[in-house]
Amino acid sequence: MELPVMPPLSPMLAKSVAEIPPGMQYEAKWDGFRAIVFRDGEEVEIGSRTGKPLTRYFPELVAAFRAGLPERCVVDGEVVIVHDGRLHFEELLERIHPAASRVRTLAERTPASFVAFDLLALGDTALDGEPLTVRRAELVRALGGARPPVHVAPASTDVETARGWFSRFEGAGLDGVVAKPLDAPYAPGERTMFKVKHARTADCVVAGYREHKSGPVVGSLLLGLYDDTGRLQHVGVSASFPMARRSELVEELAPLRLDDLTGHPWAAWAEEDAQAASRLPGAVSRWTGKKDLSWVPLRPERVCEVGYDHMEGTRFRHTTQFKRWRPDRDPASCTYQQLEEPVSYDLAEILG
């Protein structure tokens, strides 16, 4: 492979801001795997955010890139899985599997798509030093005839359009808006873009905690919500605490600590069949590997308010932010019904 921009390459990143800034190019914030695609004839490499190749996990995209991308190019974008009108991040996670046969099966069952939003090289010309306005025009020209599963991300320079996207697109599984300076060159690994994400709060039951890697202090609180059957489902964690606060939490939670799991709603967390039937903490995956997933059980009697951006199915998509204890809330009242449900929006209307 001989291209004017070569792998590995760290993608340009975004920093969080509270409001959509004016005077920029706006795009939806895609919820997938960030990827930079390098194509030199038949040679294709899909680089991840960390620089490690994703190529073997998405054989259907390799074929699509050979058929639909310019002969020699470097394209920045997002690998996503789309069906039923929305994005499905959890199905992307399943792709990171050591067995090629499993990857092929999933590629046929839930094929991935690629949403392109930047062009870093075309032919023998490097474009990463050009302003975004030039790169965007070249992207649209070079990929204007692209067909699914390759798409060009919609973009606008109108801030009111971006605000409309922010409120509407969430129902299709997108989690915000990205704003890009119009005159900026591509800056690998630097946070020169801006992202605005949805912010909400929820009251959750604290039913356990994991110890911090540094020692016997709280590393993360394990959060639960009751489903329609009255079962407490594990929905995520809250983990960002100063070290002094981690020690204080051990003392605060000590009266709730259980010596064993008998009677605890997550007592069966180590059983594979139970993990398949319910959301429980401690499920081993390709991401956790041999990591210690043990946790300290607590009587599910305390409620805390947390901040979150959006849900992925029945769990919080990202780590939540602890806000405060809610001694006024009955744990039984902490159900999924309190969560705001975005208005459904068909992703096909975004991708065309």
UniProtKB/TrEMBL annotation:
It holds the Pfam family DNA_ligase_A_C. PROSITE patterns: DNA_LIGASE_A1. Residues 216-329 form the DNA ligase ATP-dependent C-terminal domain. It catalyses: ATP + (deoxyribonucleotide)n-3'-hydroxyl + 5'-phospho-(deoxyribonucleotide)m = (deoxyribonucleotide)n+m + AMP + diphosphate. It is an enzyme of class 6 (ligase). One of its GO terms (biological process) is DNA repair. It comes from the Bacteria. Keywords: Ligase. Residues 11-197 form the ATP-dependent DNA ligase family profile domain. Belongs to the ATP-dependent DNA ligase family. NCBIfam families: PRK08224.1. This is DNA ligase (ATP). It comes from Kitasatospora camelliae. The lineage of its organism: Bacteria, Bacillati, Actinomycetota, Actinomycetes, Kitasatosporales.
